[in-house]
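tool=predict chain=A
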Amino acid sequence: MTVQEAADRGDVFVPHGFDEQTVDLGEVRMNYATAGEESSPALLLIPGQSESWWGYEAAMPLLAEHFRVYAVDLRGQGRSTWTPGRYTIDNFGNDLVRFIDLAIGRETLVSGLSSGGVLSAWLSAYAKPGQVRAAVWEDPPLFACQTTPAIGPGIRQAIGPVFEAWNTWLGDQWKVGDWDGLMRAMPTALPPEILRAMASMIPPPDPDAYPPAGQNLREYDPEWGRAFTSGAATASCDHVTMLRQVRVPVLFTHHFRTVDEQTGRLIGASTDQQARRVRDLVAEAGQRIDYRSFPEVPHSMHEHAPKLYVEAVLDFVATLDQETP
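tool=predict ok
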């Protein structure tokens, strides 16, 4: 989506409690919001798939008491540029490297949810020296967002059918745009265990909530989902290789998950077995990884339990401060 196309879609977006701005990264113009004092330590917030920056809106005032917060829209989401055919983990990650250079300009703590958690892991391994102080991986689908992972179920045995439904009824760049058809199809197009999972991982929408339910999908290019289910998004980013390159301390939070006994389908972001392998690989890299299990917490802790999320981040950062000579 070009700048002009973003302007043409202006009626899609809704106001928020924080001012938005953009930075030109070259291929994309990245939209973001800030909070907190300039003198505070920097914190980069990376949303998950189909989430715009304002998914962090409930947590940002709490975080702003301690950090200068930068919450971004990744390419293909929110007001940032849509880039058909260019949705890969490496492209997302390199966008963030440039964002840290151009918009933050100093060492930062990074925290990402879901696909954003995978990008937080990517930055832990591949960011430029001195860019990342430490990283929070909030319920990341490490291994589970790949089509043929080294361990455990892949995306087609997990959330993949949801992404495929979005892409089928909405189309790349919303070229189909059959929102009503999607709403009618979801109860029958998705496996029953996925429907049960969504009820557990994502609390039911509040009809009086603002922004309204579905606003995040209206700001999202459904080609994102197709890129993941086809394997295009992750083809150049092997998770074993990435995790063996982690160079900073990590907090890994692991939320609601189970494996359906009849189908073997993962209900959640990653299995316990996958999480153990993640921890082993980071430890082999010589880096500290703090693992915290929150089996009763929905997928997006920062949205549905913001106080708990902020407490977890602050507890982790406090231990980093203690380690600093």
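The longest helix spans residues 306-323. The mean pLDDT is 93.
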